[in-house]
Amino acid sequence: MNHPHESQELDDVLGRAGDYLMRRTAEYRETPVVMNVRPISTRRGKRLLVGTAAAATLCVTALAGSFIGGTSSGKVDVAKAAWSAIPSAPTDDLIKQTKNNCHITNETLAGYEGATVATFPQDMLDPALIDVRGTTTTAVYFTPSHAVLCVQFADGSVSVNDMPMGPNDGNDGNGWKTPGTITVKIDGNDGTESFMATMIVGYLPDGENWDPYIKVDGIETVAATKSERWGRYIAWIPGEVSGLVAMVNKLTDEGFDLPFGPEEEAPVQLSPETTIETKVSDQGVVTPLGDPATTVSPGD
Amino acid sequence: MDTNSGSGRPGSFDELIDQMRAQLLPVLWSKWGVEVGGDICCEVEEYAWENRDRLLGMSNVLGYLYRVSQSKARRYTRWSKRTTFPSRFPDVVHEDPQLHDMLQMLSALSPDQRTCVLLVHGFGWTYNEVASLLGMKRSDVNNHVHRGMSRLRTDHFDDPLLADRTTQSQNKENIR
Hints:
The complex is a heterodimer of chains A (300) and B (176).
Chain A: H1 4-29, H2 42-63, H3 65-68, H4 92-102, H5 106-112, H6 122-125, E1 129-133, E2 136-142, E3 146-152, E4 158-164, E5 180-186, E6 195-203, E7 210-215, E8 222-223, E9 225-227, E10 232-238, E11 243-249, E12 255-260, E13 278-280, E14 286-288
Antiparallel strand pairs in A: 1-2, 2-3, 3-4, 5-6, 6-10, 7-8, 7-11, 9-10, 11-12, 13-14
Helix pairs in contact in A: 1-2
Chain B: H1 13-32, H2 34-50, H3 52-55, H4 61-77, H5 97-108, H6 111-122, H7 127-134, H8 138-158, H9 160-175
Helix pairs in contact in B: 1-2, 1-4, 1-6, 2-4, 6-8, 7-8
């Protein structure tokens, strides 16, 4: 026989599950969701108020999206968790804070090229990608042979990891390489339990309007953050996971899948970048061969 | 059907859309998950627009549109093309482990059990309202809710954290 307080506890968690699904639906549809929730006990009465407040917050946030999220898309920005399936756009303040906290310098990048001294173009000292998921921000820098991932947490602390990543020379026969992954350990917010995460960095196909999505069994589709200028994307998922990167062309509706897994590693490449061609002198000085067409716009 | 009782039969297409988003959408996300449920709802809204004149004359328009949504869902679920209700929820696993466990347990229920349990115990709908919208007998809804809740209670108390609590209390008993 079930005790009344056990049933009430179950109802309470079910109510929170309903709230969670409602919030995620609002994020997925990018519109507020207002639904009928009726009080069925004292506890339900409280939840009704919370639900109503949440719906009101969603409405206000959707209207003020361009101010809150720094985006003009009007995206509902209610994610407060450490991770979210859909990244949000970084604000100018967040970009500045991340750059300051990551503190990536010429010397830092030179270390990944096996040189003690090197001078990189300014573009490479700014994050090429900034991926914001919940309270976690990942800034990605590229050298000719590596991707440097700087993960910033809610409290401002950072963790820097790197993975080999050469130019996209299409040496796997598809015209682009398979995505690279690394597994990192992430400390939870506010001293909560640490967890493993799989970071996925890869190349966009040639042409424009490609959107990368990560598909892993059992979780909803994850949208990656891309930069068409750099021709690359970044996403991360809690846990040691394997799955598919689904490329979808939003104009032509073309698509294809690329598998990834924690065991796969991108091959080390020491040749110059494709997007910014550089040359390395005997003294270890890296200089660009041509100016990029546009300035860096992280998270574009 | 009493599902429209709170807002009445829709008099315009805008009212119909409001009712769909308030009442049909929760059914779809409970049954098919946030993504597939959301996508199906978009398709049903499109269908509703194309057939608005006919639909506005119906007495149980949401019940009818639920049947339409079931037809639309086949395309998403055939050959297991897409994950419907996810079994992993990485965004809440560390923030709210209890909620995460509940979502995982819900994913293990049958779609009809999950829908009925969420609508009745999560959102406070009456059995009649659920039966009317899903096109089921009230006794069928009762069975789905009863079986779903029984399974959740069983899983709930198999939770290792709660088991620890039980073990601890048992140990205290043994010490006495």
